[in-house]
């Protein structure tokens, strides 16, 4: 589910949750969630949430989230999580990213040009890499149930998990 070429991604599109699939590499409890901030902005933070998936292989139930500051550059791990997040190796989950407030910070992401698309599209030139939850208001805490709203074309933020 990841590409091979990294880029810098402006976080401004993430006013509502955007979810990306991933396969858990190991079984255990997540002890920290991290991002790489390339252009900081004082007072801003990013929610990174982990969701289980439903029977249609879409994000569903919130397992927990981290609120990660965008105030400084570099790799930043948050060990304070909203709940204990337990994952199973080889199982697909979804991570979502969303902002706590409007921001123009930048993070490291995998370029959408090198990612597999999600779903079937109406035309062969349309590409979608992420599903967003447009049922929630902007800049809200990640919802307990993710409501897939629409497919979008956004670079995939690089997220790190520690177990």
Q: Which short descriptors sum up this protein?
A:
163 residues; mainly beta; 44% strand
Q: What does this 3D model show about the protein?
A:
This protein is mostly beta strands and 163 residues long. Helices cover 0% and strands 44% of the residues. The protein has no helices and 14 strands. The strands form three sheets. Strands 1, 4, 7, 10, 13 and 14 form a six-stranded antiparallel β-sheet that branches. A hairpin with a 5-residue loop joins strand 5 and strand 6 (59-69). 34% of the residues are buried. The model has no long low-confidence stretch (mean pLDDT 92).
Task: Produce the secondary structure layout.
Elements: E1 6-10, E2 18-23, E3 28-29, E4 32-39, E5 45-53, E6 59-69, E7 74-78, E8 86-87, E9 92-99, E10 106-110, E11 130-132, E12 150-152, E13 156-157, E14 160-162
Antiparallel strand pairs: 1-10, 2-9, 2-11, 3-8, 4-7, 4-10, 4-14, 5-6, 5-9, 10-13, 11-12
């Amino acid at each position: 589910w990841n590409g091979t070429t990294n880029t810098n991604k402006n976080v401004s599109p993430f006013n509502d949750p955007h979810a990306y699939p991933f396969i858990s590499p190991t079984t255990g409890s997540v002890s920290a969630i991290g991002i790489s901030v390339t252009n900081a902005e004082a007072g801003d933070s990013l929610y990174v949430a982990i969701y289980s998936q439903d029977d249609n292989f879409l994000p569903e139930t919130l397992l927990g989230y981290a609120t990660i500051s965008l105030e400084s550059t570099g790799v930043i791990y948050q060990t304070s999580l909203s709940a204990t997040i337990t994952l199973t190796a080889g199982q697909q989950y979804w991570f979502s990213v969303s902002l706590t407030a409007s921001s123009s910070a930048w993070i490291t992401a995998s370029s959408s040009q090198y990612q597999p698309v999600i779903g079937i599209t109406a035309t062969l030139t349309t590409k979608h890499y992420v599903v967003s939850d447009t049922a929630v208001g902007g800049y809200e805490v990640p919802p307990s149930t993710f409501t897939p709203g629409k497919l979008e074309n956004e670079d995939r933020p690089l997220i790190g998990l520690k177990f």
